[in-house]
User: Fold these one by one.
Assistant:
Number 1:
Amino acid sequence: MDMDSNFKEQTESSDSEKNNKGFLASFRDKLVKTRGSIVGRIQSLMKRRPVLDKEFLDELEAILLQADVGIETTTRLLSGLSERLKQAGRSLQEDEVLESLKEEITLLLGSPEPLTEAMEGPTVIMVVGVNGTGKTTTVGKLCHKFRTQGSEVILGATDTFRAAAIDQLEIWGKRAGARVIRHEEGADPAAVAYDACQAAKARGADYVILDTAGRLHTRVNLMKELEKIKRVVGREIPGAPHEVLLALDATSGQNGLNQAKVFKESVEVTGIALTKLDGTAKGGIVLAIRDTIGIPVKLIGIGEGIEDLRGFNPKEFANAVFQGSN
Ligand SMILES: Nc1nc2c(ncn2[C@@H]2O[C@H](COP(=O)(O)OP(=O)(O)OP(=O)(O)O)[C@@H](O)[C@H]2O)c(=O)[nH]1
Ligand SMILES: [Mg+2]
């Protein structure tokens, strides 16, 4: 099964969300902290000020800034709402406010962006990011997702910096049912990537997912290593890597945005896997990333379990956080 149908499935599930309350409810539960922060506070603001007026916008601004939405994005959201207020020529009521916010947020986040797939041969996905952001976990979850769709996956243990990293990937490979290509600790990561591509071609695998190191002696070394892996896989498989996913910890706020800028400049990140969204009361980073960095959020991690990965769907996200406002 190809990757398009994988993500189409998720998009469809959001389109038919009325028939899919269970899925959305569990999604909302996972996002309870995000909601507790932005939406909980917006809802309590609306109870106090049930109309969208100037004072409402001032208070909303403070809430968004505190939730890591960032100044640029907050300004854009507020000007969108002010515009609506002007056009209406009157104060807006609670349901109109919610609807407007949902629409503005969906607009800001754009359309869902599926993972890019190879025209033919295996699709190569590199997962990059600083240490501890959730790279290996994301690789494991993504592998499981593909496996449950009947795809053949090869994992590459290109984080050779620590032996434990290789073993950790091996465990995920066993859980998800995928072969792990590994070398010794300290081996050349590009050689592991090369072998993973060879193995994928030999077995006719659908995907190669590479787990990369988050920490090296210096950032320059790390970026050089990632560039070398990219070059090597590009020689082995046309168009590879098809995705360079940056694992970004949703709890890292402004720091996360800075990481995204650095990685974007060095290794041409094609998408963000935003991890630990379940563990933050500041989900505003979702809005800030898209708006200020311009890289689409493609996946979100909402827990430590193998199933806790979703394709990111802006409309679904807006609906989930604005619970009860369909
Ligand atoms: N709650 C929660 N925890 C997560 C999520 N994703 C990863 N984690 C946890 O974050 C920790 C670090 O995850 P790893 O996958 O090892 O991170 P990494 O980027 O590979 O780390 P290094 O290889 O050391 O750079 C682990 O305890 C994971 O269980 C998520 O979406 N939600
Ligand atoms: Mg790791």
Number 2:
Amino acid sequence: MDKDAKLAENEEGTVLFNTDPIIIKYHYEIDYLHSYAQDSPFFTGLTRRKLLGSRCTSCDRRFATPRGHCMECGAPTEWFELPHEGRVHTFTTCHFGGQAFLKETPFTLIMVEFEGVDTLFLSRLIGARPEEISVGMPVQARFLRNCKFKPTDVYFVPK
Ligand SMILES: [Zn+2]
């Protein structure tokens, strides 16, 4: 036995942003292999500036956030194209976010409602200060020119 055993330590420091609560910076990187499986057409649609929802093949319920099967009756769904214009159903301003969004804080998230669609779509809103945003405000979809095959490839601006 070695009663003087110690974990090896390096001389790297930690960047401390805040003390209460403690917020530190450290490098984090991982290669992540992820399949979109049945959701793949949604992301392919974004590369073509199309916003795809899904429609129940039995009861015609329409989902702005696509799903493979209807959450009302369980029947399979089929794809349909959502309009590029909708209205703000609700919104929030985020002053903190995950690693990918930290540099963009504060940012605004909105739930978009589309005419004739039964569920909402979560997205970013840019181009309006929080005090300028209101429930019912018309918004217009925009798409990143260089798609990353992520939900953030689409965002909204005031119409
Ligand atoms: Zn259904």
Number 3:
Amino acid sequence: MKRICIVGGCGHVGLPLGLVLANSGFEVTLLDINKKAVEMINSGVVPFKEDGAQELLRKELDEKTLVVTDDINVIKNQEVVIFITGTPVDEHHNPKIHEVLDVVKYYLPLMNVNQLVILRSTIYPGTTQIIEQMLYNHFGVQPKLAFCPERILQGKGIEEIKNLPQIVSAISDKARQEAEEIFSKISPKIIHLDPMEAELSKLMTNTWRYLEFAVANQFYMMVEDKGLDFYKILDAMKCDYPRAKSFCKAGLAAGPCLFKDTMQLSAFYRNQFFLGQSAMLVNEGLPNFLVQQLEKKLGSLKNKKVALLGMTFKADNDDIRESLSFKIKKELEFKLAQVFASDPYVKDTYKLEDALSVCDAVILGVPHKEYLDLKIDKPYVDCWNVWERK
Ligand SMILES: NC(=O)c1ccc[n+]([C@@H]2O[C@H](COP(=O)([O-])OP(=O)(O)OC[C@H]3O[C@@H](n4cnc5c(N)ncnc54)[C@H](O)[C@@H]3O)[C@@H](O)[C@H]2O)c1
């Protein structure tokens, strides 16, 4: 099978996968409704930070192994259709399953029963089964459907797709074999699960990460609230003690995946997932705590100028989706501080030198590499332990 269409192909997950597949001998079509992204990618420009993507994109466009389009008709002529669009939660933290179903439904009239359909978004457990029924109702025979979750670290997708084992699940042996054939060309190892197991495995992976951050953040707040140094204690705990090696630093646990996937898992367990809910309260509470820490240092935040460094959801990345730095900004403004948000990767923010020269104090939102060697001579809050402790 050579011709693969990726629906959502210009997104953070679709594009790296498309590039790796194109570079591995497949004819790849990236289909996306985002016309601006389609134009940019077609002109050889990667619209977001993704290591190694720029060179690969130029190469695949030159070699004509990659087509980028918003023309939905391209789907007719494909052997494989991979769906990688967003899977958000709603205002009640319940998964918006209909958004996933609507995308498949939209393309269904253009698809045919011989195509292998691969779901790759992080989906609510049971979604594969619902889509199987939808395809069956449309085609009148058992479809070829697989769910093969994406597990990359955003920004490192190209490298990770080639190094991480791929979980493959499918509703039939035929679909499983065909999906395995594709992924074994780009992945070092294939792991088989049933669809519901695979759906859960992805949600549990992200939730586990979210819980790890929550533990560190809870301890950080507990300790620092008492005027003690969390990192002094953490260093002592980890020193030559193997069982504490994986203990993470405190830091804003944000972005488009960890929160919403923990909430998807919570919805799956009928909102009885207390650990996940608690992690959400802790991680979402950290921005408020950091603002309080600064308030304690300054006495009051009213009319204070605060430089907020790092507005993206994680370091050395340009993605601001669900970034908790914006929550810090809101909280500071609520306390009548004047915020000078700065980020080398985000448009319309202050230059670092300007923010630092005018400010009375600093909060480190995200530890971009540009900030690591700064010497801050004003009061600051740095939950990441990047700057010298004061
Ligand atoms: N971002 C990550 O690091 C990451 C890692 C693993 C898994 N995931 C999962 O992958 C999925 C996609 O995440 P993302 O970060 O790539 O999202 P994204 O918003 O960056 O990409 C989704 C893309 O789908 C496109 N799209 C939406 N509706 C469409 C339609 N009807 N037809 C064609 N294209 C359409 C959008 O224009 C966008 O380009 C989510 O389920 C997410 O949880 C994300």
